[in-house]
Amino acid sequence: MEKKILANEDIQGGxxxxxxxxxxxGSSDLHRAEETIRHQQQQLYRLEAQYNELFNSLDExxxxxxxxxxxxxxxxxxxxxxxxxxxxxxxxxxxxxxxTMREIAPEHEQHWFDTYGRIALTGEPERFExxxxxxxxxxDVYAFRIGNPGDGRVAILFKDIAERKRRxxxxxxxxxxxxxxRPLSDPIQIQEAVTRLAMSRLGADRCFYCEIEAGSAIIxxxxxxxxxxxxxxxxxxxxxPMLTAVMNAGxxxxxYDAHTAExxxxxxxxxxxxxxxxxxxxxxxxxxxNPCGMLCVACCEPRKWKAEEIERVQxxxxxxxxxxxxxxxxxxxxxxxENYRAIVNQSIAGILKVDLQGTIIFTNDQFCRMxxxxxxxxxxxxxxxxxxxxxxxxxxxxxxxxxxxxxxxEIEKRLVRKDGAVIWVNNHVxxxxxxxxxxxxxxxxxxxxxxxxxxxxxxxxxxxxASHELKTPITSIKAYGQILxxxxxxxxxxxxxxxxxxxxxxxxxxxxxxxxxLDTSRIAGDQLTLxxxxxxxxALLEExxxxxxxxxxxxxxxxxxxxxxxxxxxxxRLGQVMDNLISNAIKYAPKGGDVIVRAxxxxxxxxxxxxxxxxxxxxxxxxKIFDRFYRIKDTSTGIVSGIGLGLYICREIIGKHxxxxxxxxxxxxxxxxxxxxPVCTARQ
Amino acid sequence: xxxxxxxxxxxxxxxxxLLVFREPxxxxxxxxxxxxLLDERTYPHVYVLDKRLPGIDGLExxxxxxxxxxxxxxxxxxVSADPDIKALxxxxxxxxxxxxxxxxxxxxKAVMNxxxxxx
Lengths: 684, 119
What we know:
A: Beta-Lactamase, B: Rossmann fold
């Protein structure tokens, strides 16, 4: 039948055919004519075979239809006259020839009939893209009229572009989703925008994103059609073990009808029915193998979810999760940054960061206030530029150690304000390390201690004046005591003599105390001056060992020493140090015993140690005992003795000699206090 | 007998000077200010001057005495609570220095020493 239709049409449309027969020629003519016809028919068959081959080799669908019109000449249907081999694959229609489209798919959209009818009537070819819902496909179509105008025949070249369309639509949707998400930084706003968009684009009644946290599904925001209740709430997952198992599997799932779906726990089923969530698609979002969220699109009626719709929900869920996580991370970062900024700017300490060249690269408001600079002005400066000239070298040395060894340090120094005024600061400087552990910069916490420094100065000044003023009356008291002791004869009762002796001892103690306070005041005011001269230490040490021995009968003070090279020293001050160390050794070995003064030469240094075998000093107190006014408590008696100045003054005196002083001690075994002084060089 | 002119505004130290510098070894005249001493027309074996005095201070008095040919040879002992007194007194021309608080034995010894050196 196919062949006949084509043959008839082509023969009728040819130039010769019927004319030759009508003219009535002779037998030879007839023979020739027959030959000619046979030849032409053979040509036609070849041509037809070529056309067939051509149509069947097309990867696009092809068909010829006859459009059927009603009596008003309106197109109502079309019949398939010819189809090529891929027709069935492209349409899903089996055995179409001779059948009409209405027979095959009664729901086929009217616009298809209208379009082909128009082409058959006008002869104007048309190209268009249309969805064929009944076939579940989307076609790109080129249709044109063939044959005579009255035949109503239309040739249709078409291609199923459903897959392309699906991708295009998905892309357009995702683009729209991205556009909607871009301006949003709040996780809840993101959930709101996503659910609203997904709901409208999928033609659903409800959409929500729930977060899985600590065993609960939390719906913070949901989109829903007017008249429906919100389902925002916290749902413990322990109530829904089947749902939990499905989510844990991490795969999308669809419920056609909540009334009958097997994957719903009974409690969840009731909840769904109450909330009019009858059919839905759920897409779990997994993190490290566990569900951390789920996007859900729901309808109030049973619905068969198409694969492309599920795919779209899946893409939405992934993007939502990423956006929500990013927003949460950004929010956490912003919060953390705000916290730090608030702490840094509310701090009463100046806080700054400097690079290894000492350039200020960050400063808080307080540091700017301390120096009366605007922040940008400080950021162009090097720390060195704002340090008081005399303190620069000391600061540079400490900073260099931080750069080379990563050593944190604390320093008191003076800074110069913008108006030229000088302030005192206490700085804690710590290294900032990069990922490789190298020093990259330094963090500085700077506290303005100018008021404390002024108080300290006033206190030292007061101590100085007070001690000074005490000296004249104490001279008189001491003299009276001496005169009294001198005039007492044999007739005076021994108790009186004892009392006067005790009084004179206490007067001497008082005088020592006054000297200590004065020394402290002078050290603080940097007024402790030394009368330096080359001194042979052996004689000096022996003399003070001898004097020390005179004050105790319970201790044996021994000097062990090699002949020492001379050192540059102030004899009186060094003697003061030795007296102090020996009297301490006696005091802190109350049971008596040996006190060893040991002197040795160590290259360019001489080292003098005073060792006792007394109570010792706990490790945590060993460095503190050199602090001003630090007093050690006797743990056995609870008594704190002295005023905490002796060792402080000793260390300062040794420091002024460019020497160093320290202690080695073991509790209950004893202590060795030692100092080292540089040997006198030829230049000195 | 050594005559000591003791210039000191503190009454208790004046009192002590009277107790310490006694006959037969010593005779002592007490002055409460530099001005009082400068009005005096006699001369001692030794001056003991406190540094801090009302009006002209001890160091200035020391310079005045050392610039006067009449008093220049007379030894001066400067006393003070100031720890820097040594250098100051030396520059003013004093022969000896005592830092307060000192013992009376040291004071007497110093007076004996300087007066002996001069004589």
